[in-house]
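ok so for the tutorial part 2 we go from a plain amino acid sequence to predicted structure tokens. step 1 is just haveing the sequence, like this:
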Amino acid sequence: MTFLALLLLSGCSASVPSELQIWHDLCSTGDWVSSAEEAAAIFQADSSNADALAALMISAMLDDPSLELFELAKAAVAMDSAAPLAWTASAAVLLQRGPDWYNQAEDALSYSISLDPSIVMSLYLSGLLSEMEGDRGSASTMYSGAMELDPGFSPAAVQYARYLAASGRMEEALAVYETVSGTGPTARLALAERALLMDSLGLDDQADSLALMLTPDCSGVWLDVAVYHLQSEPAVSHAALEMLSAQSQDPDLLLEAASVYLDLGLHGMALILAEDLLDMSGDSAAVLPVLGEALFEAGELEEAEKVYLALLLIAPESPFTRNRLGWISEHAGSTGTAVNHYLAALELDPEDEFARDRLRVIAGDGYDPLLLSRSDNGFSLTCSADLSLDRGNRNLLEAGGSMLLSYRFNERGTSLDLGFGGRMVEWEATVGLGVDTLRTETGWADLTANYWIDDSFYIVANCEWDRQRFSSRPWQFNAYVAGGWQEWLTSWLWLSPELGGGMVSTRWTSDAVAEYTEEFTIYSSAGLFFEKPHTFIQRSEISGEVYFPPDRLEEFISSGRISLAFRTWEPLYVSFGYEVDYTRNPLIPTWEKYDTRFFTSLNFNLL
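step 2 — the prediction. this is what the tokens look like for a chain of 607 residues:
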């Protein structure tokens, strides 16, 4: 359609009915409001004028795409099916209805051009349609064709210059912007685009001079630029919002700017602007939704909940507010409160899909009310105090404490963990004819990094150092890298085998002699884990691991573990566990191969 239409255009001049010439001139400046008023006056004087009705619809749709004018478009075509503007208006209405209607819009524009190839608005709308379909090359062809028909049609010039700038043809874009003159809306748009383009080229002084030509009364143009570039060129959109914030104190414009910041993912900027607006305007009903969304997207859920609850008092009829409160309640593990909010949302809008979907999930057998609460990103801190009794070659009583600081980067589980602790170890030993109670202290520290490749596979790296005072092994350092796979059997039960390798460095002493050993081992483990924080048994584990020196596979070391963690009261929980160790060739040949350990632990979740 596009190239054939351009062939037909050669030698044509802009053509509109004489009574619509003023309408066309206003359209050439991008003044859709005034052009719509002009067309409305003509149609009011002659309600049988299909061209005037079509002109009114075109301007109205370009000014406010949310208008529903489909029936009027059909009426215009019915009034005069041979009127090119009627088909152009029909296309304008169709393309604003969304992608499902683009083909019909293109057909209407093709027919309009076939009836009269000299109507600039048909080419301009064809360019807009191509842009909406993601074909900026075809759009630029249409815009340049519209400019050939009518060099004074500035909306096409601005769109063509935007295409040139996005294609890296900056100097050409600036030249086209400079052709747009006057004081109309499109001239202001061209001025703003020129200023931003010069700023990006490092021409700061010229950019500032152009920006100053836009008075505070014209600040809305920066918002128009920001919205246009939101998806394709977010950096330009951000720069336009900065210009708006610097030039305008209009609460309505700044509120819209905060919404665009949200769309850009700049939640901190949206939050600052919304808080300022709340102090500036005091219009809570308008500002609180943006403030709540900024807090929500920034992960400040407790603060967001306070804002949404305040908004609920002002505007209780909002399903969106109810859904946000429901989601926050779910995230906090308050399933009953979440259900109440979702049901309230459905009372307001029985077709609300979000509330329906969440209620279906909650009603499912595998739903874990606190699954979201334990997927928080950021820092966590856990402290533990434990007591254990070892039975085997030596009967040991151990007591100690530990601390784990963790930072979680995403919901999959990618994290960095730092742990350290100390223990007191007490045992009885035969000394001469008597039995003495001996005691030593141990300390340890480790650093672990987990990287999740996807929802099932991960890589883990760990290094650990431990110290045993007054023993034949004063210290040991080990490090390993492993790969793991996790299979969720339900939302609260998962299987996780792991395979890796690492190096163990140990210092041994015997009287005044010190010996250092280094061994590479292959490591393998598997575990079945259960976790439901809202139940009495919060967590349980059945796991096992084995270490193989590659050159002496028969000298493997293995262990098995079973543990239970019981909920008491937040943030405290108690753990009990039992471990069995098996060493194929003990360090001391007379020792037994099995050791067992029973342990208890008191744990505090501090962050």
